[in-house]
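Hi R.,

As promised on Friday, here is the backbone we talked about, encoded as C-alpha cells. Could you run it through your design pipeline when you get a chance and send me back a sequence?
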C-alpha cells in the first residue's frame, strides 16, 4: 500500500488564461506528487471539464498511471472526482469523491473544499486502503476557480465598489466602479452561456427572457466579478 501524501487542487480562473487544477489529498491511494489538471472543454450543460496526466508516470495503487478528471454529473446533480481505469481513456472511470451538498446548477466550476461536503466513495477506495475520510481543509486543499458559497443577489465575488444597476432590469444594465474590464458573460439559471461580448459599462439585455441570470465580468488582470440579476 502506498503512503498517502497530501495532493493539492488549484484552479486558475479567467476567460483569457488557462484554467488549471492541482489537488492534494487521499493519502493512502495517490502517489507523493502534485497533479496539474487542465480545462479540456465544456460539457452539454456548460460545465467545465478538467483532466490531468501523471507527473512521473508511476502507478497509483491499482489506478493505472494516476490520471484524474473533475466533471459534472447532471443525472445526479453533483460534481465528481474520477480516476482513470488505467488505460487513459476514462471509458470506465472510478469515482473517488463526489460533492453531496455544495453543488450549484448555476455555476460552471466545482465547489471548493470548504463549501458543501466532498464525500469519499469508500465503496471503491476501501479496496486500496481508503482515503482517510471526506475532504476537509485539514487533509486537503482546493483553491482557484471554485465557488465557495451559493449565489446572492449582490456581488458573488469581487470588489464591493463594483455595482450593477438597475436590478431588476428591463433593457439596459449598467456597470460602475470598474475601469479595467475586458469581457462580460451572462449565464441563465441552467448554467448556459446566453450572452458574451467585450466589456462595456452598458449591457443590452432586452433580448433576454424574464428570469434570473448571472453576470460575469472579466478584467484585464485576470480577475472575475459575478453578480446575480433579475430580468423583468
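Update: got your reply. Pasting your designed sequence below so it's all in one thread:
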Amino acid at each position: 500500500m502506498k503512503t498517502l501524501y497530501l495532493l493539492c487542487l488549484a484552479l486558475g480562473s479567467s476567460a483569457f488564461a488557462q484554467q488549471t487544477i492541482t489537488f492534494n489529498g487521499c493519502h493512502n491511494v495517490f502517489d507523493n506528487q502534485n497533479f496539474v489538471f487542465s480545462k479540456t472543454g465544456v460539457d452539454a450543460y456548460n460545465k467545465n471539464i478538467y483532466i490531468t496526466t501523471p507527473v512521473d508516470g508511476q502507478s497509483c495503487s491499482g489506478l493505472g498511471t494516476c490520471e484524474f478528471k473533475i466533471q459534472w454529473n447532471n443525472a445526479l446533480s453533483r460534481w465528481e472526482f474520477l480516476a482513470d481505469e488505467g488505460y487513459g481513456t476514462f471509458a470506465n472511470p472510478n469515482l473517488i469523491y463526489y460533492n453531496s451538498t455544495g453543488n450549484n446548477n448555476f455555476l460552471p466550476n466545482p465547489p471548493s473544499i470548504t463549501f458543501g461536503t466532498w464525500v469519499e466513495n469508500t465503496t471503491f477506495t476501501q479496496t486500496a486502503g481508503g482515503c482517510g475520510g471526506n475532504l476537509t481543509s485539514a487533509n486537503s486543499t482546493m483553491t482557484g476557480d471554485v465557488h465557495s458559497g451559493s449565489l446572492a443577489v449582490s456581488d458573488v465575488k469581487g470588489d464591493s465598489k463594483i455595482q450593477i444597476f438597475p436590478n431588476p432590469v428591463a433593457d439596459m444594465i449598467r456597470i460602475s466602479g470598474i475601469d479595467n474590464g475586458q469581457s462580460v458573460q451572462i449565464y441563465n439559471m441552467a448554467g448556459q452561456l446566453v450572452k458574451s461580448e467585450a466589456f462595456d459599462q452598458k449591457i443590452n439585455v432586452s433580448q433576454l427572457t424574464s428570469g434570473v441570470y448571472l453576470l460575469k465580468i472579466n478584467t484585464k488582470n485576470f480577475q472575475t466579478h459575478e453578480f446575480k440579476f433579475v430580468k423583468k
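One thing I noticed while checking it: Residues 84 and 145 are 23 Å apart (CA to CA).

Thanks again,
M.
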